[in-house]
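Work Package 3 (structural annotation) set out to generate three-dimensional models for the target panel prioritized at the project kickoff. During this period the team completed the workflow that converts sequence records into C-alpha cells, so that structures can be stored uniformly alongside our sequence database. As a representative example, we reproduce one entry of 460 residues exactly as it appears in the project archive.
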Amino acid sequence: MKKYIKSIILTTISIGFLSSCQSELDNFNVSPNSPTITTPSLLLASIEVSTFSNHTSGLNRNANIFSQHLAGTDIGQLGPVAKYIVTEENVNNEWNTIYNTTLMSGYVLNKRFATSHPYYNGIAQVLTAVNLAYVTDMFGDVPFDEAFKAEEGIKSPKYNTQKEIYERLQTTLDKAIANLNKPEASNATLPSADDFIFNGDPEKWIKTAYVLKARFALRLTQVDPNAAQKALDYINASGISSNNDDMNTFFTGKANELNQWNAYNVTRVNYLKMGKTFVDYLTVSNDPRKTFLVAKDKSGNYSGNAPEDQTSVNTSYIGSAVASADSNVGIVTYSEAKFIEAEAKFRLNDLTGAKSAFKIAVQSSILKITKTPAQATFVDNVTAIVSLENIIQQKYNALFLTMEPYNDYRRTGFPVLVPNQNATVKAIPLRLPTPSDERNYNKNATVVSNVTTNVWWDKN
C-alpha cells in the first residue's frame, strides 16, 4: 500500500491540496483529476484510499452525530453540528473530495481503460456506487450524468434527481458485476496488491456489489412497494457467507495511513465524544461490544454526551476496535447483509426466516468486533422480539460509524431519537445543505438550504 500512497501524495503536491485545516486531516490522500495518473493501478489506489477517508471522516461524522452515536462539543467545529447548525460553507470539503478525487478517478479509469481492464473498472464501479450513495443520501439531488465533463464544455453540470441517482446506482453495480464476471484473459493486467480491500479477488467484489444492490433497494421501502423482495433477491444472489467477505477500510497505522477516527482525536482532542444514547443502549443490554466500541472515560467508566451537552469533555471517545491507528472499519459487511435479509423477510411475513437472519446478523457483528463468538443467551435475548423496530435497533448497534443507521432512522423512524432540546430547531436534520461552491459556481445546482427538508426516499 505504501508505495501507492506515496505516488498519490507526490502527484497531489504538484496540483495542491484542497484548502483549510479540515482538509489537511480528512484529505490526506487526495489525488484529484491529475493527468499524471494514467495507470489503472494508481487510479484504483486513489479511489480506494479516498474511499477509506470518506468513510471515516466528514460526512460520517455528521451522520453519526445526527444519529446520536457520537456527540460534538463546543471546543471545535462539531459543537454547531450537534446543535443542528450546518452551513453551506461547512460541507464544501466533503463534497469536493468525493467528486474531485473519488468519483473523478473512477470516471477517468472507466474512460481510459474500460475495454482493456474490466476488473479494475468493475472494482471502480462498485466504489463509485458507494461514494455516489454517500453524497445523494446526504444532499439529495446531485450531478452525475454531466459531471466530470468539463473538457467537453460542460462546466455547470445539471443535477440528477435522487430517483435517477438510485437508478444509476443499480445500473452502475450491474455493469460492475458484468465486468467482474469476465474471464481473467480479458484483462491486460490484473489487480492484486494495488487492491487494498480484496487483493484483486473478483468474487468478493461481486458479493459486495450484490449486498450494495440490496442496501439501495431496501432504502426505497417508502417509495417502491417491491423494495423488500428486490433486496432479498439481491442478498440471495450475493453468496456472502461470513465476515471474511467483508469490505473494510485498510489502515496500517503508519504515517499517511492512519485510521481517520484516530487521527481526528489526536489532532482535535475533545472535539468529538461518544453519544449517550448509543452508550446507554449498549449498557442496558450488557452488550459485549461496549468495551470494544467505547473507550473508558476520565473516570474509568463508559459514558457519552447527551444531545444537549456540548460542554462535557471527560466522557468517552470511540473505542480501540474501530479507532486505533490501524483499526479497520466495515464499509459493507456480512452482518449488514443479514440485517437486510432479516428486515426484508419480516416485511414479506417470513417471520421464521427473519429471526434466523436476525440472530446471525447480531452474532457476526459481535464476532467481528470482539473476535470472540457471541454468547447464545445474549443473542437470544436481544433477538427475542422480531419486529421492524427491534431489527433496526440492533442494526443501529452493529453498524456504528457507518451512515446506515442514520439512513435507517430517516427511512423507518427507528430507533426513536429525541432531538437536542437546546437547538434552535428541535428536529434532527434530514440532510445537509447544498455546498456554497455549488450554489456560487454551478448555475444548474439544485440548491437546498433547509436541513429539515426530506430527501426523495424519506417520506416520513
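The chain is about 50% helix and 5% strand.
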